[in-house]
Predict the 3D structure of the following.
Amino acid sequence: MGKTAQILQSLARLIGRNSPALSELKTSRSLLTVFASFIVADKKIAADEIAISFDFVRNAFPDANHAQLGDFLEQAIADRPILSPHLQLLKRSLTKEQKIAFALQLFALIKTEQSDEIPKNSFFEVTTAIGIQKMGEDRGPRNERHHAPPSKGPRTYRFLNGARGRGQT
């Protein structure tokens, strides 16, 4: 990095453009935008879906202005913005543990909706875009993909810590 770039970066930090608070604000907005895209996917907005999304972000950023977070979520639900810039920001700004926690919360949101209108591919696309290997895929020895024969029961996803699907023991 050249001297000019270092000076510009220092100036941006001084005037608050790269402050941790601003970074948290951008990250929280991106998280809420992704959650909102799944909330509106079934064309019904339920209070428990909003609670799952809002609680996750509020707990991740306890010092954030919660009224502002609520406004972000409301705006994302109304505007339905393009997700790719938000997913890129989340890929850069979240730790691996935060990405996994986010993916689990997103999965909980999807399960709450109980809708067939949300393709599982959407979940996989989001987790892949934020830098998590395709969560939930069956893996064979040495993490090689394999194709299990179709089963009549629900799929068991690896990120549920080995928990079996409904009706299975």
Remarks:
- Confidence is low (pLDDT under 50) at residues 142-169.
- The chain has seven helices and no strands.
- Residues 5 and 158 are 44 Å apart (CA to CA).
